């Protein structure tokens, strides 16, 4: 095996799966076990009006994402998955998680229409 840029990037991607999956599992643990909703559906750093309502969805997103990454890690270590398989699993899971969190945060913070004040004297 010749060490070049693609091999280095492959190792970086594989090693990055460990802290990312740990972080997602820790977020799910905080939501499910500790009932800490401070990181649920944040939009510009603010929690929604009722974060407990969206906590099960955030926990599920984190658990599914971490589970797929752990499956990819185990598949690489055991030699079960080829490079194309585990890198596709990891990449699509990362994007799925980012987009799912974005969608949940936008859904939890509804857009409120601003009503114009009635002119004085009416």
Produce a short descriptive summary.
This protein is mostly helical and 122 residues long. The protein has helices at residues 5-32, 51-78, 83-108.
Q: What is the CA-CA span between the terminal residues?
A: 81 Å
Name the assembly state: single chain
Summarize the helix and strand pattern as letters: HHH
User: Would you count the extended β strands for me?
Assistant: 0
Transmembrane segments: 6-25, 54-74, 86-105
Keywords: Membrane, Transmembrane, Transmembrane helix
Sequence-ordered SSE layout with sheet pairings:
Blueprint: H1 5-32, H2 51-78, H3 83-108
Helix pairs in contact: 1-2, 2-3
Keywords: Membrane, Transmembrane, Transmembrane helix
Transmembrane segments: 6-25, 54-74, 86-105
Notes on the protein architecture:
The chain crosses the membrane at residues 6-25, 54-74, 86-105. Keywords: Membrane, Transmembrane, Transmembrane helix. The chain has 122 residues and is mostly helical. It has one domain. It has helices at residues 5-32, 51-78, 83-108. The radius of gyration is 20 Å and the shape is elongated. The model has no long low-confidence stretch (mean pLDDT 91).
Main attributes?
transmembrane; 122 residues; membrane
């Amino acid at each position: 095996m010749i060490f070049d840029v693609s091999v280095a990037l492959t190792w970086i991607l594989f090693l990055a799966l460990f802290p990312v999956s740990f972080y997602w599992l820790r977020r799910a643990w905080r939501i499910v076990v500790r009932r800490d909703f401070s990181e649920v559906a944040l939009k510009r750093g603010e929690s929604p009006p009722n974060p407990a309502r969206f906590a099960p969805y955030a926990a599920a997103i984190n658990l599914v994402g971490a589970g797929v990454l752990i499956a990819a890690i185990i598949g690489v270590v055991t030699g079960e998955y080829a490079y194309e398989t585990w890198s596709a699993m990891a990449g699509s899971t990362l994007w799925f998680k980012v987009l799912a969190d974005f969608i949940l945060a936008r859904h939890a913070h509804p857009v409120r229409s601003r009503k114009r004040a009635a002119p004085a004297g009416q």
